[in-house]
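Subgroup meeting minutes
Present: P.N., E.W., G.H.
Scribe: E.W.

1. P.N. recapped why we're keeping a running log of single-chain structure predictions: easier to compare across weeks, and new members can see raw inputs and outputs side by side.
2. G.H. added today's entry (104 aa).
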Amino acid sequence: MPKFMLIYHGGGRPETPEEGEKVMAAWMKWMEGIGADLVDGGNPAGMSKTVSADGITDDGGPNPVSGYSLVNAADMDAACAIAKGCPILEGGSGTVEVAEAMDM
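Output recorded in log:
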């Protein structure tokens, strides 16, 4: 079965421990719903740098990565359906980029 990368952009960090617990519970519920198709729940990402032939920039680009997960899905449509349930989409503060992890 193909694997797909779910790349998170945006979102925010919880401001209180209580908010953090609520956010974590939402992520855990979503991941549990993916079940055995969740290959790697991933992690949040820290500040990034962009490396190019011209050098290194410190800002991570115009839309830096904020985390990732790896899932099995039958096709791109199925992977996008999984992504639609992602808690980062709540409140409109984040997005999920979906890309197939190509076997080489």
